[in-house]
Amino acid sequence: MEILSSRVILRPADYERTLAFYRDGLGLAIAREYPGGTVFFAGQSLVEVAGHGRAEDAPGGFSGALWLQVRDCGDTAAELALRGIEIERAPRQEPWGLIEMWVRDPDGVPLIFVEIPANHPIRRDIRGD
């Protein structure tokens, strides 16, 4: 099997409110729009907010999270605050070394903004000479 691309599809309870959150609140760039949906760039991935396909009896909540790497969590927190986005948990360094900040979208989907410090193993070339 060969995977050519991927994206996360959200089917929110209130399409317009969630669209505004990702477009205006987070300021994500639009990759494409179609009748009933908008696809946003999110680094190396795409996030699609779909105004269709949600079953009337669909369960609430989302058991996953969106992991969004940023250059600086402090700067991102300040920018989101200026846009009126509530920060659930301020940026802090986790025991595994990453700096994380938590936000939730209008349906409660967790967004984890992650800063990778310069000295973190993810950034170091451990292959040696």
Search tags:
alpha/beta; 2 helices; four-stranded mixed beta sheet; single chain; 2,3-Dihydroxybiphenyl 1,2-Dioxygenase, domain 1
Structure description:
β7 and β8 (110-115) form a beta hairpin. The protein is 16% helix and 32% strand. With 129 residues, it is an alpha/beta fold. The mean pLDDT is 87. The protein is globular, with a radius of gyration of 16 Å. It has helices at 15-25, 73-82; strands at residues 8-10, 30-34, 37-42, 45-50, 66-69, 89-93, 99-104, 110-115. It has one domain (8-115): 2,3-Dihydroxybiphenyl 1,2-Dioxygenase, domain 1, CATH 3.10.180.
Our count of domains comes out at 1
Mean pLDDT: 87
Report the biggest beta sheet as strand number plus sense, adding barrel if it closes.
Answer: 4 strands, mixed
- Tell me the number of strands: 8
- Total helix count? 2
Give the proportion of residues in helices: 10-25%
CATH topology: 2,3-Dihydroxybiphenyl 1,2-Dioxygenase, domain 1
Lateral strand order in the biggest sheet:
1-4-3-2
Estimated structural class: alpha/beta
Proportion of beta-strand residues = 25-35%
Taken in chain order, the helices and strands follow as EHEEEEHEEE
How far apart lie the N and C ends? 34 Å
